[in-house]
Design goal:
- This protein has 174 residues and is of the alpha+beta class.
- It contains 6 helices and 4 strands, in the order αααββααββα.
- It is 30% helix and 11% strand.
Length: 174
């Protein structure tokens, strides 16, 4: 279960497991663990989770299993622009364009790209913003049950004060 936000608006550091359905019912979407701001955008946060689930399932279908999500979505920001994320793959897949091709074959909107010029801010929100660093990162793992399972297992890890240490996270997942 994902806990309530702390007084500073961040999740407490720790490991939390939840399915996509549980994520949709969590404080990250509902904001129900504290007085909700009148501007809390539950519908938008739910939409972000829907999009994340689509993208995660596309990554799983081509064999990418180490997927991480974090950013302002894991904070008490009323309307996060997006869910930040990253995944582990072979660099040659990106360099050759194979990864982009494989993912865009699955996606009807052909959204997969690593071209920085393709990034667009959500209407009404500035491209540049000031950031506070969340102490939590959501790690998306393959479903633990069977291949028929439709949900992911999420784990929230404390963020590193320096750069992310993927090897350490891989070890903690074992």
């Amino acid at each position: 279960m994902i806990p309530a936000f702390q007084a500073n608006g961040l999740l407490p550091p720790g490991d939390y497991n939840a399915s996509f359905a549980e994520l949709r019912q969590s404080v990250l979407v509902t904001g129900l663990s504290q007085p909700v701001s009148p501007n809390w955008d539950m519908a938008w946060r739910g939409h972000l989770v829907d999009n994340l689930e689509i993208m995660v399932k596309q990554l799983w279908s081509i064999g990418i299993t180490e997927i991480f999500a974090d950013g302002s979505f894991a904070e008490d920001k009323d309307h996060p622009n997006d869910i930040d994320g990253y995944f582990v793959c072979d660099f040659d897949q990106i360099k050759s364009g194979d990864l982009t091709r494989q993912l865009n074959l699955l996606d009807p909107h052909k959204i997969w790209t690593w071209d920085p010029l393709s990034r667009m801010p959500h209407p009404g929100y500035p491209r540049l913003a000031t950031f506070r660093r969340s102490p939590a990162t959501i790690v998306i793992q393959l479903p633990v049950a069977t291949e028929q399972s439709q949900d992911a297992v999420w784990t929230v890890f404390p963020a590193r004060s320096s750069s992310r240490n993927i090897a350490d996270r891989r070890e903690r997942l074992r």
